[in-house]
Amino acid sequence: MLNYTMHHNRANARTAVSQAKTADAPAVMELLVGAAKWLQSKGSTQWSALLSGDDHHDVVGHIENGELFLFKDGDTLAGIVLLMQVPGDWDHHLWGPDGHEPNVYLHRLAINRDYAGQGLGADIVRWAETGISFPGKTVMRLDCIASNPKLNAFYSGLGYTYKGTSPSGFCLYEKPLTRA
Prior knowledge:
Blueprint: E1 5-6, E2 16-19, H1 25-41, H2 59-64, E3 68-73, E4 76-84, H3 89-95, E5 103-111, H4 120-130, E6 132-133, E7 139-145, H5 149-157, E8 161-165, E9 170-176
Parallel strand pairs: 5-7
Antiparallel strand pairs: 1-6, 2-3, 3-4, 4-5, 7-9, 8-9
């Protein structure tokens, strides 16, 4: 289970935050598949495996580990984010084998398309930086596909420092956390 302190349970005035439970998995998968369909409509293959039912990122496992957080507007799932205290194989592949101890890894930020364009993505990232803390973790790390300039600008605009591009074509970003 994830070891954390939640400092506040709202991403904004409309959106409450909670840790996902196993029963939330179907709604989470529906949101992720919707995001993958939208990405496909924009010409991206990102998350396309979800469209054929392949969840190689193991959403249920992350829920069981307490790493997935829900952002709800009333009963409506508006967004999700995955916060990992222990780097996964993907993180080791991108960032290399060393230097992972002080980092939290942000993955799977996804927004319900009904909430797109309202700043919820930025609110979720800011909540991940200040609304929750993890003992001994002082840096937030994330990656995004290099071929999406809008997404890269989004993270840069939130104060994330570009650390390079992996050989597999993913931009690496990190930001010091104000709570540790």
